[in-house]
Amino acid sequence: MKNKLGSFVVADPSKCTGCRACEVACFATHNENNNVGFTVGTVEVPVIPRLYLVKDEAVCMPIQCRHCEDAPCLNTCPVKAISRIDNSVIVDEVKCIGCKTCLLACPFGAIDLMTQYIDGKPVEQRAIDESNKIAYKCDLCKGKDKIACINACPNQALKLVTPLEDKKAKNIKAAMSLLSTNK
After folding, report:
1. Contacts of 106 (CB under 8 A, 6+ apart)
2. What's 115's DSSP letter?
């Protein structure tokens, strides 16, 4: 059986302008069934994307889950709320207890703890007057035909990397380069 490495989204910081179209597309895709409005003045919940734009004087690019093969977040989750489904590392929002272990384990800072929303309303904890917090991260738009952030980027700064295909393309490029220098 051939080893199939999981894909992930990467950004080209030289193309990213920080427009946040990727964040809005991510939010819209993950909330299309939650009765959330999508025009100015109709969004009543916080816009919570599953990617995080880093923007300062030196760099501008979104940070997303790499769906690691030996995923530290998956390996450290004490309640097994994180699993691998179709080569993607996915958080089960029902099982997640918000313990922050995955957040601390992620070497990329691609996981955040956010208020859990159901039907546009924050889920309240049982014992205290506070909203429930759960892990949020990129799920490669699980169950969707296209990856929203990639399609929304006006500068084509985002691309889906498939490691084995990427390696093959680099091998071919290297071979062609070697052939041209030997002539």
Report:
1. 65, 72, 73, 137
2. E
